[in-house]
């Protein structure tokens, strides 16, 4: 019997037949996997807590052709605090949906596992979930191989903004150079914050001041990169997050 024993995070959990659940795990060792957890909806199941979204645990799986089967597991961290605040919870769900939809099954993605766990750790402590979200989006885009070119205008190298972010090139372009129709205005301040996020990740994020305007600009660039480079046009959890951010 082929088995996988790995740390993993529950990206998604849904009902499956009467008593079972199907979960999507991001494992440290084998990337994204789909797992059947048998009998977990029965009241005495010892696995019930292991299949909750945002649970970090150690899982033992029997590898199957279509789906793996959960054999055993233990919880490392259930991220209870993220479940207690709607904005933080919705932000964490958004991270999970981005990862789930941008990764293929069964391809190791250890850097993205480490990034996602680090993002949840920071999110627990940070009073500004939108700042964590922008930093996570850019870091994920970078890990997936679509890092934007931000060192001056793509054509002439001009170093001062404002620029346009041109999604056809994944790069910034100045106002004097040609740009594709699929481009949006972006300030020099937003470009500077993006460069900082790409260079430093979550390091000392809490002291990085990001205005709502700059946050919005970076969010639009990241959404455009997800749309053009990864085919993620509709991201349900992002729409939900946007709706509660306005409250
Ligand atoms: Zn230029």
* CATH topology heading of the largest domain: de novo design (two linked rop proteins)
Count of individual beta strands? 8
Terminal Cα span: 51 Å
| Helix and strand composition category | alpha+beta
Strand order of the largest sheet: 1-2-3-5-4
* Name given to the CATH homologous superfamily of the largest domain: Recombination protein O, C-terminal domain
Instruction: List the ligand species.
Output: zinc ion
Instruction: Examine the secondary-structure arrangement and name the CATH architecture of the largest domain.
Output: Up-down Bundle
Q: Count of helices? A: 7
Percent helix range: 25-40%
Quick check: average pLDDT?
A: 95
> What order do the helices and strands follow?
EEEEEHHHHEEEHHH
Would you identify the regions where 5 or more consecutive residues have pLDDT less than 50? Answer: none
Q: Give the biggest beta sheet.
A: 5 strands, mixed, barrel
Can you tell me about this structure?
With 247 residues, the chain is an alpha+beta fold. The protein has two domains: 76 residues, OB fold (Dihydrolipoamide Acetyltransferase, E2P) (Beta Barrel); 165 residues, Up-down Bundle (de novo design (two linked rop proteins)). Helix content is 38%, strand content 23%. The chain is built from seven helices and eight strands; from the N terminus they run βββββααααβββααα. The strands form two sheets. A five-stranded mixed barrel has the order 1-2-3-5-4. A three-stranded antiparallel sheet has the order 7-6-8. A hairpin with a 3-residue loop joins β2 and β3. α2 packs parallel to α4, α2 packs antiparallel against α7 and α5 crosses α6. The model has no long low-confidence stretch (mean pLDDT 95). The protein binds zinc ion (ZN). The site of zinc ion (ZN) has 8 residues, from β7.
């Amino acid at each position: 019997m082929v088995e996988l024993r790995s740390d993993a995070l529950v990206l998604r959990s849904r009902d499956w037949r009467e008593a079972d659940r199907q979960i999507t795990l991001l494992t440290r060792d084998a990337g994204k996997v789909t797992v059947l957890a048998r009998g977990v909806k029965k009241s005495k199941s010892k696995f019930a807590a292991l299949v909750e979204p945002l649970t970090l645990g150690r899982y033992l799986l029997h590898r199957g052709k279509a789906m793996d089967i959960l054999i055993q597991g233990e919880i490392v961290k259930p991220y209870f605090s993220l479940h207690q605040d709607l904005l933080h919870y919705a932000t964490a769900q958004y991270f999970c949906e981005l990862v789930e939809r941008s990764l293929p099954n069964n391809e190791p993605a250890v850097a993205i596992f480490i990034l996602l766990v680090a993002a949840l750790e920071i999110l627990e402590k940070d009073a500004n979930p939108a700042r964590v979200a922008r930093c996570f989006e850019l870091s994920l885009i970078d890990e997936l191989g679509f890092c934007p070119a931000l060192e001056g205008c793509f054509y002439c190298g001009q170093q001062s903004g404002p620029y346009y972010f041109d999604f056809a090139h994944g790069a910034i372009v100045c106002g004097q150079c040609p740009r594709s129709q699929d481009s949006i205005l972006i300030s020099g301040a937003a470009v500077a914050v993006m460069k900082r996020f790409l260079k430093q990740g979550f390091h000392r994020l809490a002291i990085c001041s990001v205005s709502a305007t700059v946050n919005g600009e970076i969010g639009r660039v990241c959404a455009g990169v997800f749309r053009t480079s990864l085919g993620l046009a509709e991201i349900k959890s992002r729409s939900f997050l946007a709706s509660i951010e306005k409250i």
